[in-house]
Amino acid sequence: MKLTYNFTECDYIEFALRSAKKNNKRILTIAALLFTVLFIMILAASHASVKVIIEFAFILIAVIFLNYKLHNIIVKEQAKANIMKLGKDFFTNDKTLYLSDEEIIFSTSVTVKRISIKDIMQIHTDDKFAYIDIIDSAIFIPLSTSKLPVFLSALKDKWNKEQQKQENH
After folding, report:
1. What is the dihedral of CA 139, 169, 164, 96, to 10 degrees?
2. Are the beta carbons of 117 and 102 closer than 8 angstroms?
3. What are phi and psi of 145, to 5 degrees?
4. Phi, psi dihedrals of residue 132, rounded to the nearest 5°
5. Of 55, 59, 79, 84, whose CB is crowded by the most CB atoms within 10 A?
6. Global pTM?
7. How many whole angstroms separate alpha carbon 93 and alpha carbon 109?
């Protein structure tokens, strides 16, 4: 089975932001909670007044918000650097996925990569993209791609069979 698709530079930046948000949301939440607990302990130990606690709470919230915004800026800049490294041809040419019984062949103007069905970690969608998470990276496909539902269904069937085969061994 063959699926041909393309995406724009803006799609790539949005994918990078969504991936970073998904991957780092838990880490950022834990870090924010730890800083909040540390902040409360320091203020409680110093017997600070309620006014000082409120002022520092606003500062803490501002720092957490700025950290989130700064993280988005860094991810965007890294995505733009990757765009420059890949070149304009990567975004103007089609990408092709070939699905066989044991692997996916991912073909672009830059590379050809063979991905074993065993190396797929997860297959999922959101409101804009379908994702095929692999051990070391991810493939994203815009939902507007024709024949995507048929391809994903066939891929999920093969992946589920592979999962069952591994569980039985």
Report:
1. 30
2. yes
3. -65, 130
4. -120, 100
5. 79
6. 0.68
7. 7
